[in-house]
């Protein structure tokens, strides 16, 4: 955890403030969140190889992108190119919250030979104002379920903007590093580092990375994931 929150804080605060403004105009809870209207995506494992589960919301599912542009697909290509014998399973569901993730994690982890979970949830909890204690508890349980099966976890964090109030901001922003420290899991402080607020790297909504931005997102993940990988 050598990343400094101060280094990424300003850009992420501004990004999330824009995200809140973009999504707060609807009164329909089903329409709130990162790509909430995208159909549920069922993870399908096809190869008899150890598996990496990409578990998250629309940022994982690849909202607004083709399958080949999604980060799990790009990650699979990188692993293949570097000689790692893993299958990446896209278990992203657009609009998902930490509770939604908790409700489906047992089913996802039932697949054979899951070795790593990339856990990317919490942004939609922020958008809906879910109490941090509930989000943290849900993520805690997901991590515990993975570890009980001897599955390694890479936790992708997010930061809350000042507009949420100082107490919420402080508690939310601390929840992810606290969980990573408590469970001794790998931690990526900000998934969209070097992507957020860059118009040329985002879709028209200003929230979801475009194909070029997703390449950078995959690199952010791969940097923290690589120490967990085992050579074939």
Q: Gist?
A:
This protein has 232 residues and is of the alpha/beta class. Helices cover 44% and strands 12% of the residues.
What this model shows, in words?
The protein is of the alpha/beta class and 232 residues long. It has a single domain (5-228), classed as Rossmann fold. The protein is built from eight helices and five strands. Helix 3 (71-81) packs across helix 8 (211-225), helix 4 (98-109) runs parallel beside helix 6 (132-148) and helix 6 (132-148) packs parallel to helix 7 (166-183). Mean pLDDT is 85; it is low at 1-13, 20-33 and 35-43.
Layout: helices, strands, pairs:
Elements: H1 5-23, E1 51-56, H2 58-61, H3 71-81, E2 87-92, H4 98-109, E3 114-120, H5 123-127, H6 132-148, E4 152-156, H7 166-183, E5 186-188, H8 211-225
Parallel strand pairs: 1-2, 1-3, 3-4, 4-5
Helix pairs in contact: 3-8, 4-6, 6-7
């Amino acid at each position: 955890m050598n990343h400094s929150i101060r280094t990424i804080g300003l850009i992420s605060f501004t990004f999330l403030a824009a995200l809140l403004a973009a999504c707060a105009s609807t009164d329909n809870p089903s329409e709130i969140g990162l790509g909430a209207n995208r159909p549920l995506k069922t993870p399908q494992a096809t190869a008899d190889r150890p598996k990496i589960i990409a578990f998250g919301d629309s940022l994982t599912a690849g909202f607004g992108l083709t399958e080949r542009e999604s980060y799990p697909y790009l990650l699979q290509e990188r692993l293949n190119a570097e000689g790692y014998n893993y299958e990446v399973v896209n278990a992203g569901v657009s609009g998902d919250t930490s509770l939604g993730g908790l409700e489906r994690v047992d089913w996802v982890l039932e697949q054979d030979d899951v070795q790593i979970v990339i856990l990317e949830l919490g942004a939609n909890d922020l958008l809906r104002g879910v109490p941090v204690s509930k989000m943290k508890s849900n993520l805690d349980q997901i991590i515990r379920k993975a570890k009980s099966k001897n599955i390694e976890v890479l936790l992708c964090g997010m930061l809350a903007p000042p507009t949420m109030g100082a107490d919420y901001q402080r508690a939310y922003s601390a929840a992810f590093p606290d969980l990573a420290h408590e469970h001794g899991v790998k931690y990526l402080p900000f998934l969209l580092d070097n992507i957020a607020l860059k118009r040329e790297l985002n879709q028209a909504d200003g929230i979801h990375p475009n194909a070029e931005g997703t390449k950078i997102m995959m690199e952010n993940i791969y940097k923290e994931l690589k120490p967990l990988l085992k050579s074939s």
